[in-house]
TrEMBL record:
One GO cellular component term: plasma membrane
One of the Pfam families matching this protein, by short name: 7tm_4
Location (main, coarse): membrane
Source organism per UniProt: Echeneis naucrates
PROSITE patterns (UniProt xref): G_PROTEIN_RECEP_F1_1, G_PROTEIN_RECEP_F1_2
UniProt lineage: Eukaryota, Metazoa, Chordata, Craniata, Vertebrata
Protein name per its UniProtKB record: G-protein coupled receptors family 1 profile domain-containing protein
Keywords: Cell membrane, Disulfide bond, G-protein coupled receptor, Glycoprotein, Membrane, Olfaction, Receptor, Sensory transduction, Transducer, Transmembrane, Transmembrane helix
Length: 300
């Protein structure tokens, strides 16, 4: 057993052990999925940038959501594709921490962006006369910076606390690096108290994000019940957002269940899919949902 973190220069990822006979099939499907993610997100980003009529807060936030999706998938897919063609699945110590930072700052940023989008729809429908003052260019820049920088700093703090731990094992039973699992490899559990406190605070912060989104949509639904015009606005702009939110929350819930409770009764392959669902479905479905909405609005 290794008792010093400095001795661990590599981590071994064992999530692909049961898929060795299907590696080339998985490689082809994963490469196709990654190409689709880039295609649909880039198409929507370019459309929003080039069409001046879409230079509105809602679409700028959507553009931010798509960019964040590309950022998050870059942290997983290239390394995963390499592992599918490699007989040994390893990652450097620093590379592992960097991957955890990218993937979980992406997930937290997604929730922050969805919260800002919910606030944008709340102001647009419930306080229409104040909309342009509240969602001004300066305010939008602040919201976007908040959605990207705050999650990055919070997750970076979690990763920094992990980097100070002495680890006793280089084995990670996942397809990718997960901060919570790295913390569990600590030689001395007493050293992880600060990690657990900060991790709990991080979870609480993003639970409040979720509660804010729920509150904003409850307010919107109450407002829209009594107005045909507001009902129409809700259907056009909020339903796609609700679909994106539902897809994201289901994906994250499965990942948390897989990470915290193990789900050992599931096969390794199914556990793998549950773990990476938030890197497959939201990055593909978000641009498709909003792209379909844009297509419908242009046809009208």
């Amino acid at each position: 057993m290794m008792c010093n973190a400095s001795l661990i220069t590599m981590f071994f990822l064992s999530g692909l052990n049961e898929a060795k006979n299907h590696q080339f099939t998985l490689f082809s499907l994963t490469l196709l999925c990654y190409c689709v993610i880039w295609l649909v997100n880039i198409c929507l980003i370019v459309t929003i940038i080039l069409d001046k009529s879409l230079h509105e807060p809602m679409y700028i936030l959507l553009c931010t959501l798509c960019m964040n999706g590309l950022y998050g998938t870059v942290g997983f897919y290239p390394k995963f594709l390499w592992d599918l063609l490699s007989p040994v699945h390893v990652i450097s110590y620093s590379g592992c921490l960097l991957q955890a930072l990218v993937m979980y700052s992406f997930a937290c940023s997604d929730l922050s962006i969805l919260a800002v989008m919910a606030y944008d729809r709340y102001v647009a429908i419930c306080r229409p006369l104040e909309y342009h003052a509240v969602m001004s260019k300066q305010s939008l820049i602040k919201f976007v910076c908040f959605s990207w920088l705050t999650p990055f700093c919070i997750i970076a703090l979690n990763i920094f606390l992990t980097s100070r731990l002495k680890l006793c094992s280089p084995c990670i039973a996942r397809l990718f690096c997960v901060n919570w699992i790295i913390v569990q490899l600590a030689c001395y559990p007493a050293e992880t108290i600060v990690n657990n406190i900060v991790a709990s605070m991080t979870i609480i912060i993003y639970v409040f994000h979720g509660l804010f989104i729920v509150w904003s949509y409850i307010s919107l639904i109450k407002m829209c019940i009594h107005s045909i015009e507001n009902r129409s606005k809700f259907m056009q702009t909020c339903v796609p957002h609700l679909l994106s939110l539902f897809i994201f929350l289901v994906a994250i819930l499965f990942d948390i269940m897989s990470m915290r409770f193990g789900l050992k009764y599931l096969s390794q392959n199914l556990q793998n899919f549950v773990a990476i669902e938030f890197l497959i479905i939201p990055p593909i479905m978000n641009p498709l949902i909003y792209g379909f909405k844009l297509l419908l609005s242009r046809c009208k």
